[in-house]
């Protein structure tokens, strides 16, 4: 499930693009199908929350994976591992060394594709909260995220954490696990836990996401064995690893769930999991 750490890892895998020249462009999104990046150089690739940006020439390719999107990397001419009809962007790049192979990247089933001028970047991300995986998080991001969440004390904290306008990068798995680890029900309101509770949740979210940012599989329990890494996420009906109580499942959504207006439905509804003993009702 792509969350901020997944996009950071994707960005890390694409850093080889910097300095390369685009040899072939194929954007299979009607609005941008006529755009061409051939002959232009890649300046930078970077993540912001769940979003990925590629600065090529004077423009930026902006994508979001949503639930099913992937980027495939292979030598040009190799058979794709996914169906061709799922491709949304195809970019082929110059070899790293003279005589070397051209490398191709294919964005399959991307949930969101946009191209804009590089100078418009601040405006494009203006609606997003601070990136929870930013290097300077403690300097400028942390306090801003807490302040944004505190502006709506009537809102469920679980919904506020998932709202990318408050803090960018937290997804449903991290929301579920963080709420368990801080001992709060996902539906508890911001006003009830107060600034101290919000700070506790935000600080823990940053810590577990930072610790997992380079890991191939997320781990919240400290147990890296398959199927043992989460406390509540996806474990409805199973025994709580801490107290043995059956894990509960419901939904949290509607207008209070917020979300990113560019990529999420207006009334976002997601599954929540919790332990009634460890987190209350």
From TrEMBL:
| Any matching Pfam family | Fapy_DNA_glyco
Q: Which UniProt keywords apply?
A: DNA damage, DNA repair, DNA-binding, Glycosidase, Hydrolase, Lyase, Metal-binding, Multifunctional enzyme, Zinc, Zinc-finger
Query: Which PROSITE patterns does this entry report, sorted A to Z?
Result: ZF_FPG_2
Q: What is this protein's name?
A: DNA-(apurinic or apyrimidinic site) lyase
Q: So what EC number does this one have?
A: 4.2.99.18
Give the source species. Corynebacterium macclintockiae
InterPro entries, per database record:
FPG_cat (IPR012319), FPG_N (IPR035937), H2TH_FPG (IPR015886), Nei2_N (IPR044090), Ribosomal_uS13-like_H2TH (IPR010979), Znf_DNA_glyclase/AP_lyase (IPR000214)
Q: Name one GO biological process term.
A: base-excision repair
The record's GO molecular-function terms, alphabetically, read: class I DNA-(apurinic or apyrimidinic site) endonuclease activity; damaged DNA binding; oxidized pyrimidine nucleobase lesion DNA N-glycosylase activity; zinc ion binding
Q: Which residues form the FPG-type domain?
A: 231-280
Family recorded in the similarity comment: Belongs to the FPG family.
Q: What class of enzyme is it?
A: lyase
